[in-house]
Specification:
Layout (H helix, E strand, L loop, with lengths): L9 E12 H14 L5 E7 L2 E8 L13 H13 L3 E9 L8 H5 L8 E5 L6 E8 L2 E10 L1
Parallel strand pairs: 1-7, 4-5
Antiparallel strand pairs: 2-3, 2-4, 5-6, 6-7
Amino acid sequence: MGVNGKKSKEINFTGQDFIIKRTIYEEIITYCKEILPYEACGLLSKLEGQSNTLWKIKNESKRFNRFTMSSESIKTAVKEMEQIGEVLSGIFHSHPNSPAHPSIHDIRNNSYPELPYLIVSFHKGRTEVRCFKMIDKKIFRINIKIID
């Protein structure tokens, strides 16, 4: 379901891949599994075009189907990124029981529409990771390019 009760249409975001190291990609999935049945969340940072570092951020929400990252946690992580010469490159969170598609809550609360947004889903026992940009309540799918 999308915004205002309408199903959100997913549009392919051509010409752009989200590049991520295999070790980081696998670490995100492992971290999200460890937090089940709650949603895991965090940030990614990069140096020279590819995501290099995973920043695990505590989910401040006590609900099974929500995540909240405190502004203080985000500021601290971004400051640490800058200290090692990296920049914020993406946001991730998990969907323990729903597909890897942004929820209404995800769309409405996305504070960084310019950043790629990864969702790790464990819906129906399958692990799926998808990447999106959410701009003006439109959902754009981005290909994930995993590198070694």
